[in-house]
Write a structure and sequence with these properties.
single chain, 91 residues, mainly alpha, Methane Monooxygenase Hydroxylase, Chain G, domain 1, 87% helix, 0% strand
Length: 91
């Protein structure tokens, strides 16, 4: 019984760490975007950066959803059909 709690907290901790790292990278990308705007960089470069940020945010959403589902599976909770459909749609 105690082992399950340890495993669950490790899964949650590892997942949260990955998510926070991903958020930090996105913050850096957005700061870079701001710098590009301030320095009046080429529009195509800025658009490429915006697309990269958008992809990174989409990947963040998928990571959060995946982590949530893994935690629920480790707790043996019933998975939400809406969440499963969203995960399938993202991939």
């Amino acid at each position: 019984m105690i082992m399950k709690k340890v495993e669950k907290s490790k899964v949650e901790k590892d997942g949260a760490e990955k998510i926070l790292n991903r958020i930090s990278r996105i913050e850096g990308q957005v700061r870079g975007l701001r710098t590009m705007m301030e320095e009046k960089k080429d529009c195509n470069l800025i658009i490429n950066q915006v697309l990269a940020v958008r992809e990174a945010v989409a990947a963040l959403g998928a990571e959060i959803l995946q982590n949530n589902l893994i935690c629920k599976m480790s707790e043996k909770k019933k998975l939400d059909e809406k969440q499963l459909r969203a995960l399938i749609k993202m991939k």
